Amino acid sequence: MSTTASTPASTSASPPPTPAPATVLLAGSTSALGASLLAGLRSRSSSRPVTVLALARGEQPNLAADGAADGAADGGAAARNFPNFTVKPLTWDGVTPPPLESVPELSNLTHVINLCGDSIAEGALGPIRPWEQPGKLESVVSSRTESTRGLLSWLERNAGGLSAAKIHHINAGGVGIYGDDHTLASSPPPEATSEAHPAPGKRESGFLAEVSREWEAAATTSNPGKIQVSVLRIAPVLLAAPGVFSAPGVLKSLLPAFFFGAGGRVGSGTQMFPFVGERDFQAAVLDHVMQAGEGGVYNIVSPSRISNEQFSRSLAKALGRPCLLPMPAFVVRQLFGQMGEEVLLGGVTATPKRLLDEGYDFLDADVDSAMKHAVGGVKLMG
Ligand SMILES: NC(=O)c1ccc[n+]([C@@H]2O[C@H](COP(=O)([O-])OP(=O)(O)OC[C@H]3O[C@@H](n4cnc5c(N)ncnc54)[C@H](OP(=O)(O)O)[C@@H]3O)[C@@H](O)[C@H]2O)c1
């Protein structure tokens, strides 16, 4: 059967239907990853009108500064360039979303994305080791579990009144759930961990694995008929760094040393270093997971399996610097304590099995390519 129209297009063609507007509730919109997803959502808004309800515990000057929010101070350049994209900054307490009934776009809610979580490595070079600061470990856990439970119970109370047949809740998680016992040097080499790990009932040791388990346990719903939950086990994301001292995410503490030629591997450098490029983080989340029908766990990690030494060499190479000065393990332990042991000296091996099985094609699978995107445009004072 032919599908070709028989009447001339000039007289009978009707304009393509306008796609239904979508509303995304983004909790943790002030996070480094939140800024990246906002940019990704904005650049994709030409094909579908999008409103982001951006939840944070305080003001969000970043949104006004880049022109993303309503009433931005830049004279509305972003609004003119992306007329289909709107951000509404909203404050909350980190647990329960504010009354949103007065927000007209709420009825179009299709997705909730939760990126909340007190930084695991923040305060790394303070006088007190990061995880020894009073209340730090409790805050790392509760900022993740309470925000997750709060959002899901809010959604369970309100989902019935929303027009979408199913709301997709996407929760951040980490590859730290796989624990640390793998190095490239071990023989035989470790098997890369897929989403099928850890096996049910198996408890990887370490604080990161423990937090990750509690976090994922919180990301469950009593109403799977109306709410679909996806968990992202995210590897360190190589976010684009505007300046040497303003790099977001994992490169924040590394970039100054490497830029001035004082970087090198950490410890033996044989520990595995999972990573994902920013373009793949955005595309995997926004173009794949958000559109996927089934929910569940996704490893958001590059398929390249590299060591800390390979990662360090790639960063130095992208900056045109040598990679000469290793940080010995005893210095890491002295300065950072248990955080250094797990985050810097520990290694995780993870593979994006599900993304690959479902046909996702990585843009920057190779670390050099992801690194070039992250630091290729870095400026001394950017
Ligand atoms: N960056 C990475 O490469 C990476 C890798 C794997 C997993 N992740 C996970 O992805 C999420 C975002 O990471 P990020 O590095 O972009 O984070 P980030 O820049 O450190 O930002 C942390 C976010 O968490 C919120 N937050 C902090 N304490 C909170 C609390 N007690 N209650 C509610 N919200 C709280 C902050 O919002 P306020 O404005 O309200 O303070 C902020 O938006 C985190 O959960 C992190 O563990 C990140």
From TrEMBL:
<dbReference type="Pfam" id="PF08338">
    <property type="entry name" value="DUF1731"/>
</dbReference>
<feature type="region of interest" description="Disordered">
    <location>
        <begin position="1"/>
        <end position="24"/>
    </location>
</feature>
<dbReference type="InterPro" id="IPR036291">
    <property type="entry name" value="NAD(P)-bd_dom_sf"/>
</dbReference>
<dbReference type="InterPro" id="IPR013549">
    <property type="entry name" value="DUF1731"/>
</dbReference>
<protein>
    <recommendedName>
        <fullName>DUF1731 domain-containing protein</fullName>
    </recommendedName>
</protein>
<feature type="domain" description="DUF1731">
    <location>
        <begin position="327"/>
        <end position="374"/>
    </location>
</feature>
<feature type="compositionally biased region" description="Low complexity">
    <location>
        <begin position="1"/>
        <end position="13"/>
    </location>
</feature>
<feature type="region of interest" description="Disordered">
    <location>
        <begin position="181"/>
        <end position="203"/>
    </location>
</feature>
